[in-house]
Design goal:
- This protein is of the alpha+beta class.
- It has a single domain, classed as Glutaredoxin (3-Layer(aba) Sandwich).
- The chain has six helices and six strands; from the N terminus they run H-E-E-H-E-H-E-H-H-E-E-H.
- Strands 4-3-5-6 form a four-stranded mixed sheet, sandwiched between helices. Strands 1-2 form a two-stranded antiparallel ribbon.
Length: 182
């Protein structure tokens, strides 16, 4: 009888092991509407096991030229498993109400190829769950547009950076490389 119980217990453990290892991190258990699309971005499906730079963007912000640096960062590290995720927000009153205009700024003006969501609230009680989790893990919500959160392959915030930190800043690059190693 003990042998059967042990065997059954072992089988359950082996079956549960891979499921637990493949469980999607809380940070990624969300979907976002994709910019200028009827599709949604399933964060678990698309980003599980990848390192991320999640950034709240705004088309008419003085930091908008950082789109070029974010795109360069994405191109530099995407083959290693990095994804940049842009989340436009009007929390600081610098984003268009027109998704077509937001898309034009991102895709046409700055040549963005990384995933972009539709405009979302990113701070305060209205913040979407992704940004509530980022703020909780980092200990800081975005104080302005172009806050950058670096997330490792396990869905944990490695570091975050203010708007003033450019995408090619050595400290941000160091955080990205750390996230890719985890």
């Amino acid at each position: 009888m003990r042998t059967h119980l042990f065997a059954a217990s072992l089988a359950l453990t082996l079956l549960a092991g891979p499921a637990a290892a493949n469980e999607c991190p809380v940070l990624l258990q969300h979907e976002l509407p994709e910019l200028r699309s009827k599709e949604t971005i399933d964060l678990c499906q698309q980003f599980q096991g990848k390192a991320l730079v999640v950034v709240n963007t705004a088309s008419f912000c003085g930091f908008a030229p950082q789109f070029k640096g974010l795109e360069a960062l994405y191109q530099r590290y995407r083959q290693e498993g990095l994804v940049v995720l842009g989340v436009p927000s009007d929390d600081f009153f610098q984003e268009s109400d027109d998704a077509a205009e937001t898309a034009e700024v991102c895709y046409v003006n700055y040549g963005v190829t990384f995933p972009m969501a539709q405009t979302q609230p990113v701070r305060g009680s209205d913040a979407i769950p992704l940004f509530r989790e980022l703020a909780e893990q980092a200990g800081a919500a975005p104080r302005w547009n172009f806050y950058k959160y670096v997330v490792d392959r396990n869905g944990r915030v490695v570091d975050y950076f203010s708007s003033k930190v450019e995408p090619d800043d050595p400290k941000l690059i160091e955080a990205v490389e750390k996230a890719l190693r985890r």
